[in-house]
Amino acid sequence: MSSLPSTVEPYWRDSVPLPSFPRLDEDVSVDVAVVGGGISGLTTAYLLATQGARVALLEADRLLNGTTGHTTAKITAQHDLVYDEFLNHFGAEKTRLYYDACMDALGFIRRTVEQHRIDCDFCEQDAYIYTTSSSSFQKLVKEWEAYERLGIDGAFVESIPLPLPVKAAVVMKQQAQFHPLKYLVNLVDAITKAGGAIYEYTPVADIEQGERLSVVTRDKKRVECDHVAVCSHFPFYDGGFYFSRMYAERSYVLGVTTAEPYPGGMYLSADDPKRSIRSAAANGETLILIGGENHKTGQGVPTMRHYEALSSFASQLFTVKDIRYRWSAQDLTTLDKVPYIGPMTADAPNIYVATGYRKWGMTNGTAAGMLLSDLILGRDNPYRDLYSPSRFYADPSVKQFFTTNLDVAKHLLTGKIEPAVRRPQDLARGEGAVVSVNGKRAGAYKDEAGTLHVVDTTCTHMGCELEWNSGDRTWDCPCHGSRFSIDGNVVEGPAKQPLKRLELDESP
User: Fold this and answer.
1) What is the pairing mode between strands 246-258 and 320-334?
2) Are 264 and 362 in contact (CB under 8 A)?
3) Closest CA to 15 of 153, 223, 167, 178
């Protein structure tokens, strides 16, 4: 079995030079402030700026360094086994709208690629959900019946092009894949050419409401505007208690080269643990992306085991020559599995949110940009009610709300009573763990030079105790998905404040 790369780096970011932009160092006034430099924020800013709006886009880190830069980049309306479930919960009209919104997003990406002649490896692929287990067979039958009822272009098949012993599969025709960063870099260029301003390393701390809105950065700079689009993955400004209405999951990807040619297509298992498969063009070679192994953030087995499981699966499926890349991503799931896109609350109609894409950010993020730009420009959009953040369906929302928040309560209590017996000094180089410092729970990582990085493991969001993520070398919150670096800096919200760094008492 090939060895795993020592560093965590997505192929997308490693293969494209990205432009850089300054941090915001003065107060500015625009029509619209867009917070977040992923596919949602960039699509929103692109559509607004190219239609004459004055736009400022603020990114806390580097552009495309978050979930968008760590995607598998399938552009598809086949979002796992959802259509039978949605029919039961929402009815045929809303379920068909969900499919149409995703296909409209795919069509938008296709048209934009053609219009700007973007070389981003865009190509149509059929998308398959398959099962190798008899226990999932009936689920696929029901999903295919939902396709037929909704008029979705697809088929029910008994085999797929991959060498897997499948029992059945549902295929959705004429979906697509691409290199997301090659595509989005062109949107960045179009934004700036249309007069839009982009600022990196500019974390936003708050939104103040008055005669106009004021977006206030952590450095106390202000962006005066009429509309704010919060596209920061987890909403940094949480006027609607979004932390209680979503949960965070992590998933993992390997980029491998193989001896066999790839047969085409995009694949997702209906069984657990999840397996996702697609190909990508990489410097004249075919890179096969093997993904899956989802689990709630901060919970489950040591995270390196997820990469190892994917490596084992890849070796069963192909003759693996080399594992070139490994990376992971974090995604948010809403109570009813449909994203929240639209006005954040009824009391703040000019503050918009886009979140909860459940691992399907290429279509949902594009649909978000299309919907938010229409709302801001005062245009009708057929998907406004479908994605409305203020919607609520008794089934499944009530059940999922209690399930999600009972899980939070369980981990909040468990973390507080979990004993920490190891000492920071006992760690090997390259190892991190929960340790005891002066009799209290703490987190320590010893780097390859032997330097210890010690932090308080109490999450700064709501006080849950963090767990060590060995695969990505981060401290992860099992309650709401916040993540922190080895030095305690915020990697992922909803937390805004860094962890407290601890000094060790070196006395005997």
Assistant:
1) antiparallel
2) no
3) 178
Q: What are phi and psi of 484, to 5 degrees?
A: -135, 150
By CB atoms closer than 10 A (0-12, 13-18, 19+), residue 300 is middle
> Rounded distance, CA 277 to CA 296, Å?
21
Residue 171, Cα to own-chain centre: how many angstroms? 24
Query: Around 241, how many Cα atoms within 13 Å sit in the side-chain half-sphere?
Result: 6
pLDDT band (50, 70, 90) for residue 398: low
Task: Name the helix (H) or strand (E) containing 327.
Answer: strand 320-334
Listed in sequence order, the residues at least 6 apart from 95 whose beta carbon sits closer than 8 Å to its beta carbon are 83, 86, 87, 146, 150
Rounded mean pLDDT of 178-190?
97
Q: Do strands 348-355 and 227-230 pair parallel, antiparallel, or not at all (unpaired)?
A: parallel
Q: What is the dihedral of CA 368, 371, 376, 377, to 10 degrees?
A: 140
Q: Is the pLDDT of residue 150 over 80?
A: yes
Q: How many residues does the chain have?
A: 508
- Beta bridge partners of residue 290, listed in sequence order: 254, 277
3 state SS of 97: helix
Rounded distance between C-alpha atoms, residue 244 and residue 435, angstroms: 29
Classified as helix, coil or strand, 352 is strand
H helices of 351-393, where? 361-376, 384-387
**Distance between CA 240 and CA 256 in Å, rounded?**
42
For residue 499, what are its two tokens?
A: 């962890």
Helix (H) or strand (E) holding 320: strand 320-334
Q: How far is CA 204 from CA 11, 74, 346, in A?
A: 28, 30, 22
Q: What is the mean pLDDT of residues 433-444?
A: 86
**77 secondary structure, DSSP code:** S
Determine the Cα–Cα distance for residues 224 and 213; give it in Å rounded to an integer: 6
Residue found under tokens 């703490």: 442
Alpha-helical segments (H) within 377-444: 384-387, 394-417
The beta strands (E) that lie in 150-300 are given as 154-157, 168-177, 197-199, 204-208, 213-217, 222-225, 227-230, 246-258, 266-269, 275-282, 285-296
Query: Structure tokens of 213?
Result: 């809105």
Q: Which residues lie across from 288 on neighbouring strands?
A: 256, 279
Confidence at residue 471, expressed as pLDDT on a 0 to 100 scale: 81
Calpha distance 283→245 (Å, rounded): 42
DSSP 458: B
Tokens at residue 442, please?
A: 């703490």
